[in-house]
Amino acid sequence: MVDLNKIIQAKRTISGFVDETPFAVSNKLSKNYNANVYLKEENLQKTGAYKIRGAYNMISNLSQEEKAKGVIAASAGNHAQGVAISAREFGIRAVIVMPEATPLLKVSGTKALGAEVILKGDNFDEAYEYANEYAKEHSLTFVHPFDNVFVQAGQGTTALEMLDAVPDLDYIVAPVGGGGLISGVASCAKQINPNIKIIAVGAKGAPAMFNSFNAKKVVNSKSVKTIADGISVRDASPITLRHILENVDEFVQVDDEEIANAILFLLESQKIVVEGAGAVGVAALMSSKFKYPKNSKIGIILSGGNIDVQMLNIIIEKGLIKSHRKMAVSVTLVDKPGALMGLTLALKSANANIVKIDYDRFSTQIDYGDAVITITLETKGKAHQDEVCEVLNSNGYIFKKIF
After folding, report:
1. pLDDT tens per residue across span 156-214
2. Architecture field, domain 56-142
3. Which of 401, 238, 247 is nearest to 327 (CA)?
4. Contact 278, 308 (CB under 8 A)
5. Which residue in 193, 245, 282, 299 is deepest, having the highest Cβ count within 10 Å?
6. Pairing relation of β-strands 171-175 and 141-142?
7. How far apart are CA 17 and CA 39, in angstroms?
8. Which residues are catalytic, by number?
């Protein structure tokens, strides 16, 4: 267990540099799930994630000799930015090793904070191995993203702020990758209130810590694949696993579909932008992964908001399709003047808004003199899509619904 005094000291250390983020009630989540749900918005940190807490606390505790030589870290992005901005604050060199598939937003954000970035490896663990070698070769101090007591204590300040705001919380729900956040948060919460329930949430595509929790020993994964890149860790840490086994009451998993649904819900209904790792707690709530008494006070940590714009666009588009707010149909027309106008008038009568049209007269799958029109439409739900299909049928169009 991370000592509460170290967490309190970390809070003093980071105050004035690290933001105290909002811990606000979500009326929609509370109503939908019969609880009092509060969201800890670490996505609003100056680096867009909680990682700055632990990074700054560790770097501030380095010796002058260590600071003079500089620091190095391995990270999928959020820890990188936390180390970079903290090193800049102390005026020291920072080198960050990131997996080659790290989203551009996180790479450019890290460079903008003054760090040197090296892209190496297919995942965090390969980047981590290279960073350790580089640290030894260049005499740099390694700032571990989770296996360090100062880092864990810094992350634990998140729980201090939550319990200061809502002292009678019944549950804290937090994401787990390497385990630094949950180690600090769970240790802090259990020492303040031993009766509080801690729910750890992992991604199904990165199951090492979940499997280790259930086996009560380290069980590493062969590979990882999840949209929650911030918790995409292949190997379980024996150090953080020990804290998790001591303090976590329940460990659940969510898949990418559930994570994407939570991201879209937070964006559309709460006007909150989070990344995959930041959404897993809400995903667990929305997917009924854990049980709780009615009207329980549940605090969920939104750990970060640094989502790649292209990934966000994919999630939005897929979400619109799944909720029947976007559809595409392929219609075969006689290729003559006015044919397309007749089709669009039919769709107008169904109050469907056209957002894209593709016109193909060269397909080898159609007769000479015909054309295939693929039209993407904005719709208002399944009933509206059924109405569009009925209008097309009643007007004699040969069509196929694509999605």
Report:
1. 999 999 999 999 999 999 999 999 999 999 999 999 999 999 999 999 999 999 999 99
2. 3-Layer(aba) Sandwich (3.40)
3. 401
4. no
5. 282
6. unpaired
7. 22
8. 51, 303
